[in-house]
Each structure stands twice: as C-alpha cells, then as structure tokens.
Amino acid sequence: MKRLHLYIIKSFIGPFFVTLLISLFVLLMQFLWVYLDELVGKGLDFSIILEFIVYTMAMLMTNALPLAMLLASIMTFGDLGENNELLAMKAAGISLYRIMKPVIVLSILLSIGSFYFYNQVIPVSYKKLIALMSSIRQLRPEIIVKEGVFSNEIDNYSIKVGKKTANGDMLYDIMIYDHTEDKGNTTITVADSGTMKITKDKKYMILNLFSGQTHSEMQPADRRKTTYPARTDKFTKQSIFTVLQGMELERKDESVFKNQNRALNNAQIVYFVDSIGRQLDKRRVDFSTTLNYISPANTNVIKLARKDSVKSKPIKLVQYIDVDEIYAKASSGNRSGIINTALNNARNNIRVIQQSEEMLISSQRNLNRFGIEWHKKYTFAIACLVFLFIGAPLGAIIRKGGLGMPLVISVVLFIFYWVITTTGEKFARESIPVWEGVWFSTFIFLPAGIFLTYKAANDSVVFNVNSYGEFFKKLFSRLKKKPEEKKDN
Predict the structure, then answer these.
(1) 3-state SS track over the chain
(2) Which of 149, 276, 354, 446 has its CA 20 to 30 A from that of 464?
(3) How does pLDDT run across 98-148, given as a tens digit for each residue?
(4) 48-79: per-residue pLDDT in tens?
(5) Strand 187-198 and strand 204-217: pairing?
(6) 330: phi then psi, degrees, rounded to nearest 5
(7) Do residues 217 and 226 make contact, with C-beta atoms less than 8 angstroms apart?
(8) For residue 254, is it within any domain?
C-alpha cells in the first residue's frame, strides 16, 4: 500500500507544479496587461520590473493554488482512468477513497501552508507592491521626442523635431521654445541639427545644437510702449543643460499603506474591526444627538409660547408637553414663528440624516471589507481541498488525461467559482452577513465535490444523459399511476 501511495503522489506532484506555473503565468499576464500603460515608457530598470513581478506573483498565488489543484487532480486521475489503472486498483479491492487518501493528506498540508502564506506573506507583499506601484505612477515617462510634434516632457522647454535618425542619435530641423523665465513664447531657438543625451542617473539633459539662431523679445523699460525690441543670436554650436525632475524612481514609505485590509494579518484585522466598530457605534450615537428634537430644554417653540405668559415655572426635562395646546394658546404672530422654526428644524434634520446615512454606510462597508479579508484567508485555503474532491472524481469519471479536456473543465469550473465568490463578496459588503457572502461559494462547491466523489467511488453514471432520461420517465410514470389508482378505489 505504501508503494501505491508513493505512486499516486508521484503521479500528482508533477502535474501540480506544471499547472501551478501555467496558472501563475496566465494570471500574471492578465495582471500585467491591466497595468501595462503604467509600466511602459518609463525606462524602468530590470531589477524594478523583476521586483514588481515577484510581488505580483505572491499576490496571485492564492488564486493559482486552487486552480492548479483542480487541474492537476483531473489530469492525474484522468490519466489513471484512461490507462485502466483505476480499474485495476478497484478490481484488487482498493476503493477510490483509499486511492485518494495520499492526495487528500497532501491537499490538507497544502491548505495549511496556503493559509499561513495568505496570512503572513501576502500582507507584506501587498504593502511592498502597492508602494512600488504608487512610486511608478508618479514616475514621469521617458523623454521620447516624436517627429513633427511638440514635446513638453522636458521642464521649461517645448521641443519640436522635423526628422530624426532611426536610432534617435541625430535630430534635424529643431525648434525650441524657452519657458525658463515664465514669460511666454518670447525666446525661440531654431537649429539645423542637434543631439540630445540624458545622463545615466536621469537627472540631467544635455542638448547640443548646430547651425542655428535664437530669437528673443526684450522687455522695454517703459511698459506703456506697444512695440518690443527683438534680438537675434546666431551660433555654430550651442549647448543647453537642464535639470530633469521626476525621472528617477523615488520609493514611497510602505507604512503609509499598513492600515489597508489586505496589508493586515488576521490578528491585526480583529483589532482593527474592534476599533472601527467602536468608532461606528460612536458615530451612530453622535448622529442621534445632532437631530433637532422638540425638547423642553432647547426649543424655540417653548420660547415663543412663553411670550404670552408673564410668570411661568421652569419646565423639567422629563415633563410632558402638549405641543398642540401650546400652539393653540400662542398668539397669531407667534404661530407663524413656530411653524417656520419647525420647518427649518425638519429641513435641517433631513440634511443631517442624508449626510449621516452616507457616512454610516461608507463606514459599514469599510468595516465589512476587513471582515471579508479575514474570512477569505480561510476560504481560499479550504478551496484547495474542495477542488481536490471535485477534480479527482471528475478525472476518474471522464477518464481523460493530458491538458485538453481537463484544462477546459478546470477553467470553466474555476470561472464559475470566481463569479460566485465575487458575487458573494459584493453582497457581503452591501447587505447580507459577511460570513454568508464569503463562504457562499464553498457552501455550493463542497457538497458538489462530496456528491461527485460518492458517485465516482460507486461507479455511478453521472454524465450519461440517457440515465437521467430513464429516471424522469420512471418518475412521470409513477405520478400517472397514482391518479389512476385513486379512481379505481
């Protein structure tokens, strides 16, 4: 039996690592495609790009592991079924449960490792990734001068080039507007040709111009004059040296993002949820006290009504007040004041309620995001085990190995799982309890996996349409017999 278990593990390990790399590659390409515009054209060093990819792969590991488990289990047991090895094992009296036992143990260990990875490694990777992405977003694009178009990427200069060589070393028909003095387009330089070089540290630019002239409009001493003197300087060679800002990567502090939900482990999330929950309760109490109630202690209605009486005892806070009686005894002049005061209070209350409602809903959604992240660390870890109980029996039933049919089935099931998970999280943020929304996909796929495992272990027909047709025929025939039996009786 030990040899059999080792054989099953060896058969599973190879496809698992291959499918894990394939899953990571596909998810990474999808992620990079989304953020391609923010990475291209900024002259990033290979080390920065490699660092970005490593952090991204760590973040995508939680999605790649369940997909790899599903695909590898279908491939492994599909190969065993296609080569009649499963049939031989069952003929020898070995049940499917015993065949799956070593893979189940391996999946449990993988689920535990997945939870630890999600709880300890991913928060650190997320902070580093989000800080790196924020730094890259603020990085200015690399200076690329296009033919026939003014380029404003160089500080205080606007450059237009008529033509340039294929490698960009030589520029022709150059026109430059100098805005260093911030006086508009008063200084223009035109050159026959030139070269542009940027230092390796990307802090300075050197522009060498050949055979040109500079036209400058001079500011007159008397501002009342409408004419401006001009000056033209011809040159054989001229160099422009300028400082480039924002061309080098400036790292952002990771601690800025430490309080985001994905940057916390479960122990920290519990602390934040408790803290945010107390703040939310306090805001609810503060909201209730900001409304303008008709209270004996503070109301213009009572003050207006008291003007008609000379002597009156102070009203206690717990004393009941008949507003209709006060309004009836008030003079006609005070009645209009009472109505206007009530209308103003009602309008203020409506505005306060609307503002407070938006604030409370936003705070509750933020609180729910922390709760969702807490539960997701468990659901994604258990997903490895759930997909094993779906993939292994499916492979035993369809009896197809390789990457063809298993890949199609795995992608369809995983997309279905992802759609249900995303929908559940959306409902968890808005309306239903957090745990119900996050665990909704597990509640659907786990019974399905147990059902498929039971069917495969008992060699039951699952994908045969004729068997379901026979079942419904028998069901309808029984339903027809019952009314006939009642008539005979």
Answers:
(1) CHHHHHHHHHHHHHHHHHHHHHHHHHHHHHHHHHCHHHHCCCCCCHHHHHHHHHHHHHHHHHHHHHHHHHHHHHHHHHHHHHCCHHHHHHHCCCCHHHHHHHHHHHHHHHHHHHHHHHHHHHHHHHHHHHHHHHHHHCCCCCCCCCECCEECCCCCEEEEEEEECCCCCCEEEEEEEECCCCCCCCEEEEEEEEEEEECCCCCEEEEEEEEEEEEEECCCCCCCCCCCCEEEEEEEEEEEEEECCCCCCCCCCHHHHCCCHHHCCHHHHHHHHHHHHHHHHHHHHHHHHHCCCCCCCCCHHHHHHHCCCCCCCCCCCCCCCCHHHHHHHCCHHHHHHHHHHHHHHHHHHHHHHHHHHHHHHHHHHHHHHHHHHHHHHHHHHHHHHHHHHHHHHHHHHHCCCCCCHHHHHHHHHHHHHHHHHHHHHHHHHHCCCHHHHHCHHHHHHHHHHHHHHHHHHCCCCCCCHHHHHHHHHHHHHHHHHHHHHHHHC
(2) 446
(3) 888 888 888 899 889 888 888 888 888 888 888 887 777 766 555 667 777
(4) 788 888 888 888 888 888 888 888 888 888 88
(5) antiparallel
(6) -70, 155
(7) no
(8) no
Q: Which two tokens stand for residue 344?
A: 């103003």
Q: Are 204 and 242 in contact (CB under 8 A)?
A: yes
- Beta strand residue intervals within 244-280, DSSP E: none
The whole-angstrom separation of Cα 344 and Cα 366 is 33
Say if CB 74 and CB 394 are below 8 A apart.
yes
- Do 202 and 345 lie in one domain? The reply is no
Residue 255 lies in a domain: no
Asked if the structure places residue 257 within a domain, the reply is: no
Q: Report d(CA 278, CA 290) in Å as an integer.
A: 19
**Structural domains in the chain (count):** 2
Q: Are residues 126 and 274 in the same domain?
A: yes
Question: Shortest CA distance to 116 belongs to which of 265, 261, 237?
Answer: 265
Range of the domain at 304: 1-139+265-489
Q: Give backbone dihedrals phi and psi of 53, rounded to 5 degrees, phi first.
A: -65, -40
Tens-place pLDDT, residues 304-347: 444 444 444 454 444 555 667 766 777 776 777 777 877 887 78
Are 101 and 440 spatial neighbours (Cβ–Cβ below 8 Å)?
A: no
Cα angle 18, 450, 70 (rounded to 5 degrees) comes to 10
Question: Which residues make Cβ contacts (< 8 Å) with residue 328, sequence separation at least 6?
Answer: none
CB atoms within 10 A of CB 259: 11
Q: How many CB atoms lie within 10 A of CB 464?
A: 10
Query: Contact 401/74 with Cβ under 8 angstroms?
Result: no
Number of C-alpha atoms within 13 angstroms, CB side, residue 257? 18
Of 263, 235, 287, give the one whose Cα is nearest residue 121: 263
Instruction: Return the axis-axis angle of helices 332-398 and 96-116, rounded to nearest 10°.
Output: 140
